[in-house]
Every structure is written in structure tokens, then in C-alpha cells.
Design brief:
α6 packs across α7 and α11 packs parallel to α13. Helix content is 47%, strand content 15%. The protein is α/β, with parallel strands linked by helices. β9, α7 and β10 form a beta-alpha-beta unit. The two termini are 36 Å apart. It has a 4-stranded parallel β-sheet with strand order 4-3-9-10, with helices on both faces. Strands 5-6-7-8 form a 4-stranded antiparallel β-sheet. It has a 3-stranded mixed β-sheet with strand order 12-11-13. The protein has 15 helices and 15 strands.
Amino acid sequence: MPIQLFNTLTRKKETFKPIEEGKVRMYVCGPTVYNYIHIGNARPAIVFDTVRRYLEYVGYEVKYVLNFTDVDDKIIKVANELGEEVPQLAERFINAYKEDIHAFHVKEADHHPRVTETMDDIIAFIKGLIDKGYAYEAEGDVYFKTRAFESYGKLSHQSVDELRVGARIDVGEKKSDPLDFVLWKQAKPNEISWDSPWGKGRPGWHIECSTMAKKYLGDTIDIHAGGQDLTFPHHENEIAQSEALNGKSFANYWMHNGYININNEKMSKSLGNFVLVHDIIKEHDPNVLRFFMLSVHYRHPINYSNSLLESAKNGLDRIKTTITNLEHRQHSSTDLTENNEVWLDKLHEHKQRFFDEMNDDFNTANAISVLFDLAREGNLYLQERHTSSDVIEQFLQAFHDLLGILGVVFEQENELLDEEIEQLIAKRIEARKNKDFALADQIRDELKEKNIILEDTPQGTRWKRGS
């Protein structure tokens, strides 16, 4: 089954066909860096990192670009409030962003372009639009002529006439049509600015991404992605600018992830439910947060709550426990046992189901369900009287590959070796024989702290690793 993805542009699932065979050019809108990112910013970072991982797993060479907006009204406002320079504030929160998403095992982008490092390209882009009659200068500002681009509204599926309703020219704006949007803003007194043919100023938001995508990926890219809230006006305006200048399609596929609600309410500062990733990862395992984010299809809204996060943790622990038990059974397994082919066929079937779900618009929610089925199958296999080290190796490789696609990575733990556990159990048995129950309990508690669970049975003491 080839990869099918939902294209916001056409509002339907389409078979993915890259521009260049075997290669994918992918642009994801990154953060405006004036604060720590909130959980809503984390979702596209995790979702589209997973898309990238899957594309790479199936053999594509992915060129992945995620930008930083490092000059903006909000950044300038916060810098003034804190008495910082804009570049220093932006640098601080770019580093904070990278640190936060690194905790989620998000891979580094091939390029992280910044607006301030792309200024000459932005100015050249705007000049090109003016030369082609798609933009005009007005007393130091430059605006895009929205009506000049005939297919404006095709991404958000709105017509120019519909957009006219409620559109207005705000105080201080110099545009000639309410629908026109700014490409270059004239500098205000004491505001960070750059020289341009239209005087000192800085770029508007939309032109920045169009320019950076063109610079690093070319006139036409395969996938452009971002949050659902960016569909209009940001991505709509990107299309208009890029296609007006380049005379060709800007992006063949548009992907947008859904919103995040907090305890069934829309996240917003006014409601006081604005959750920063910087704070969350102090209390919760980032691995669990990533797993939670992928437990819902990326286009659907997701509800964040501590109870749902705990449920995700329990689910991930089940998978981790199966992996740990498989690892430790591997040491005592034989090379040849009966029914190997039967179990390997079952394993292959689960892997194929996982790939089928990922091929169906990157349905990580259903793919995770397959992982739970695989864990159950692994547990059933461990109940066999004799197990094969080869079959267990195949199970472990499957978990490694499929969890790796999802970006869920279990860190190596400083665990006790089997021999050390057996020695402690023998010491405990001896203590019980000598009626030294305090020492026996101490050893049990010590092992429990290391996630080793003891079971005293008529056949002797058995142990297993907990979650």
C-alpha cells in the first residue's frame, strides 16, 4: 500500500508522489521565539518529526527545514519589557526550544533558518513581487495586492468575496485594499530595523516563510506542514506570494495538525490553562508525552489532562515491560525450537499492519494499537515451554524499529545483571533459613527499588523485572 496523506489543499487523501524520486523536500513552520514553547507548539514538532522518521524508514531522503521567527512584534514587546536586546532574547528562547524538543527525541532539522539571517533574500523576494505587479510601496510599507492573485483562498477554501466581509483598514495602515497584507513594515522609533529600498524596516510574518522555503528547498516543495491555526491567513498568504513570484505551484501537499485542549477546554492565556513544555517535562517523562501526542491521529484535536497522561504512561510501561522480559529470556533461550515459523509469521503480520496504518495518512493512533497487540503476542510467546533466541531477537528488532519510527526511545538503565540478582536471591534464601527476616526483607526491598519483583512459590523464589 503506497503512502496516502490528507492534503489540506484538496481536502482529500492522495497518494504521495515526491517531485524527485526517492527524495522529499519538507518545510515545517517553527516557533516565534519570545517565550518557552507551550504544549500546542510541541505537537507539530512531534507529529512532523514522526512523519519525517517514517519517510526516512521506508527509504526516502528527506530534506527537513524548520524555521525560527526571531524578529516580530511579540519579540520586540517582550524584549522591551525585560530590558533585553531582541537578538539576545531570541537566541535564549531558540536554545530553550531546542532543549525542550530534544527531550522529545525530535531530530535536528537539516536547516533551522532564521529571519534575521535571511534578510537580503526577503528584500529581494519583495522587490520581485513589486516588479511583477503583485505588490506596492506605500510610505515605507510594502503590501501584497491580494486581488491580483486570482486563486487566493484556495487553501482555506474561501473566496475573495467571502473574505471581504469584515475586512478593514486599521488605523496607521496605508494599504489600498482591506484584503492586502503587509510584506515590509516601516520601522518605528528605536525599533530594530534593516535598510531596504523602501527605508528602514523589517519584514511581515508571511513573507519570511515563503523566502526561507524557497532558499533552502526551491520554488516547489513536496510537503509544507504546520498547525491547523496557520492555514489562514499564514499559509494562504505564503501560497499567494510564492506562486505570484515563481509562477509555479508552491507546495504539492499541505499537512496540518489539530488543536490541543486542556481538560476539555481550548488552551488560552485568558483561561489560565496555558501549559509550557518547559514546566511539563520537569514533572513528566518526555517519552510518555510523545507517546501521548501520537495516541491520537494528528489531524484530530487532542485533549491533555493528567489522567490521560497517566493512561499513556501505563500503556507505554506495558510495552516496555514486554521488551525487558524478552531481553532477559533471550539469555536462556535455545537456537532451535518448534513453531518458530508460526511465531515469525505472526510477527510479520503485526509489522505489516503497523506499516499499513502509517501508510494511511500516518495514523499513529492505530499504529500504537498494533504495538499493544505485538506486546500481547510477545507475552504469549514467553509462556512457551521453550523459546528461541532467534524469535526473541526478531521480536526485539520489531519493537526497536517500530518504536523508533514513532520516536519513542527507551533510555538504557543502570540495571542489575541476572547473575547479581541470583546472588542476592541466594543471600535472601540463606537469611530466611537463618530466620534473619530483617535482612531478607531488606534484600527484597533493595531488589524492588531496582524494579525486580520477587515471588515466593512452593517451587522456590522466582523473579521478574517490573515496569
